[in-house]
Amino acid sequence: PSSPLSTMADGRRRILDAARTLFGRHGFDRTTVRDIAEVADVDKALVFYHFDTKEELFTTILQEYFDAHHDALHHAWQASGSLRERLHRVVDAYVDFIVEHHAWPRLIQQISSTRHSTFFPVVQQGFVPVIRWAEAALAEVTDDSGPRSAYHVYQTMAGAIVHHFTHAPIFAAIWDETPFSSHHLEERRAHLHWLVDTLLDALQTPQ
Q1: Would you state the torsion angle of the CA atoms of residues 42, 44, 45, 51, taken in this order, to the nearest 10 degrees?
Q2: At 124, which helix (H) or strand (E)?
Q3: DSSP, residue by residue, 16-35
Q4: What is the model's pLDDT at position 9?
Q5: Predicted pLDDT of residue 6
Q6: Which pTM was predicted?
Q7: Which residue(s) pair with 154 in the sheet?
Q8: Structure confidence by residue, pLDDT tens digits, 95-110
């Protein structure tokens, strides 16, 4: 039989899983604690046992996403290889992260577009380690400022990755594609590798 502690831990994880799904689908404001409890198959009181407020629950989910995001990029970057090879791995890790955490881009877009006063600072702070990593990783080929800066290179690469997952379902019918199939994702990875190569070739060419 399960111990009380393992049962409580399982309930907490089910609450987080349900909340992640519902927040990603409906947003923070349109998701209720009752909805989360029903999907998690737990009593509403258990939600408040683990999390004092719905805001605390949502913040916990955001922080888990950012920790997983930063760890994925960091581990991909740490392996040996040339700058080009490591950036290819980082791109693959970013794609894998969103495939596994498909609600993440939608949550970030919701907060960014509404500038929700409670969560906007959480998202800003969550991106700080990623931005600082990008500045350090790209320092040898980027300028301190201007169009060839790490800021713009990071924006271009991250935007090309995230855009696929937020807009591909809209374009799928137009281009007769299945944006999340294994074949299409591998095709997208190859395109992103090409984008990395094109950017690096341009950045390493003296002006």
Answers
A1: 90
A2: helix 120-137
A3: HHHHHHHHHHH-STT--HHH
A4: 82
A5: 60
A6: 0.87
A7: none
A8: 999 999 988 988 888 8
Tokens found for residue 69 = 């995001």
Task: Return d(Cα 23, Cα 182) in angstroms, integer.
Answer: 26
What type of residue is 67?
Answer: D
Mean pLDDT of the chain: 90
What is the identity of the amino acid at 79?
Answer: A
pLDDT tens for 125-156 read: 999 998 998 999 899 899 999 999 999 999 99
pLDDT at residue number 167? 85
Judge contact between 21 and 103, C-beta under 8 A.
yes
Question: What is the C-alpha separation between 66 and 63, in angstroms, rounded?
Answer: 5
Q: Which SS3 state, helix, strand or coil, does residue 113 take?
A: helix
List Cβ neighbours of 136 (8 Å cut-off, separation of 6 or more).
Answer: none
Which residue in 181, 170, 141 sits closest to 157, CA to CA?
Answer: 141
Give the list of residues 6+ apart from residue 134 with CB closer than 8 angstroms, or none. Answer: 150, 153, 154
Mean pLDDT of 23-47: 93
Residue 205: Cβ-neighbour burial (10 angstroms; 0-12, 13-18, 19+): exposed
Asked whether 166 and 106 are in contact (CB, 8 A), the reply is yes
